[in-house]
Fold these 2 entries.
Entry 1:
Amino acid sequence: MIDYRFNDKTVIVTGSGSGIGKSTAIKYLNSGANVVFASKTEREDVLDVIKSFPSKSIFIKADVSDEGDVESMIKHAFNRFGSIDILVNNAGVSKGMLLEDTASNDWDWVMANNVKSCFLCTKHVIPFMKNQRYGKIVNVSSIAGRDKSMVLGASYSTSKAAIIGFTRHMSSELAKFNINVNAVCPSQTKTPLLDALLTEEIEEALLKKIPLGYIQSPDQVANVILFLSSDESNYMTGSIVDINGGLL
């Protein structure tokens, strides 16, 4: 059955070069949306997807921790498609190290890419969403923001906790404009970020802790993101949704 939930809606997905962001952006495309793939890196597999949907998708190279890049990205998206209906703040990085080994510039880099990016992208889509009195914003936090990370370090856990606080505040601030703001907290997900860190020993320890017994795919996270940005969830705002296979 073809999904037309997002027919003619315009979606920006940050960090959509791979992993959760890429899977989410492709699902929006397959649901009728106009999709902006925003990423710092151009990847051939993503560009191939865009070539298959030439009138419905564009790639914008952007550093979403840089305000100039963000403003340019959002204006470009609006000029191309005529609206901005959905923002998925997915871009994220990590420095998996002990706090005592973390340099100040590494800490700042994680905060800029994970938290400042949410602030900047949200700030600059708000005028467009307010004007149309409609908008959906989904922020990608993490199980690390609920508790801690086994492998990604204090800076990552702190940044993802900040996203939860940001989501709750913005949901209240924007509700009167019919803008819903929610967040997802995935547990470990089979992405390039995790694959680079996952040793056999760490994977074995993880699997023992996950009641469902396996590490989820990016598509499983993307399904929940799409639900939260659809009109099916229009009474949900300020919600922090766990996607963790029962890992608490």
Entry 2:
Amino acid sequence: MTLAFNAALCALILAAALATILGRGIFRSIMFFIVYGLLMAVAWVRLDVVDVALAEAAIGAGLTGVLFLAAFGRLVREGAEAEPPRRINPPAAVACVGLTAALTWAWFSLPIPERPGPQLAEALPRAGVENPVTAVLLNFRAWDTLLESIVLLAALIGLWMLTREDDWRNRLGLPQHVRPGGVMSGFGRVLPPVGLLVGVYLAYVGADRPGGAFQGGTVLAAVGLVAAMTGLVRPPRISAPGWRAVLVAGPLVFLVAGLAGALLGTNFLTLPAPVAGGAIFVIEVALLLSVAVTLTFLVLGPPEGENRR
């Protein structure tokens, strides 16, 4: 039964990937991309990697899918060809096939790495947390997480560069109109409190169990988007200094903690054992807020001309 389920899951993942690439129409491809992300989350659960499954479901399928849908809506609003005719670009096809062949060769030619279980178990007491994934990403190999937070901020800055000078002081995104008593209005009353609890919980338990700042921040970003779409809150302006401070808080606190670790006798971004637990908690809180606000602003998009308030 397990083998049959795994085989069916692999087949569905391949089918969704092919449908995403070869499907007719941008909207249909986006839908299959979201399905692909959800199936990948199930696959990670089957591999007993719950942290990655949460990240894939929240960011890979959820948030990225919403960004694609927002881009599709922008294409429609600006009168672009939202459903271009299906064409095959021979150079691109050859490049994709060559890249796939190279990756396949690299996969089978690489030596099988040793399991890090004994080494990680020995070092885990010095990490200040019980979750090995959190220990690796925020202490033992924190470069990856720091760069991920910086890349998110750079993506938002790149999006804001699309803003026209006349719109710089306007609020983010387009104005939202919600029918009182409708479905979206009901979502705005019910979902934000529940999502707020879930997001904070995922970040809080990330030190000891599956979860973390990125997973919790994505849920909080969804809360912010629902609140903005239902009119509960007004989107801020780019020029608001408080929101800018929250955006840089995560990477900045991360860098300060890394420098403090180096000054205290350990390596850069390696936290000393006596203060590792508290430092990771502070980093997680800062990252939670930065990730939530950054992802929310990415989906809302830059200020637009119609949004003059």
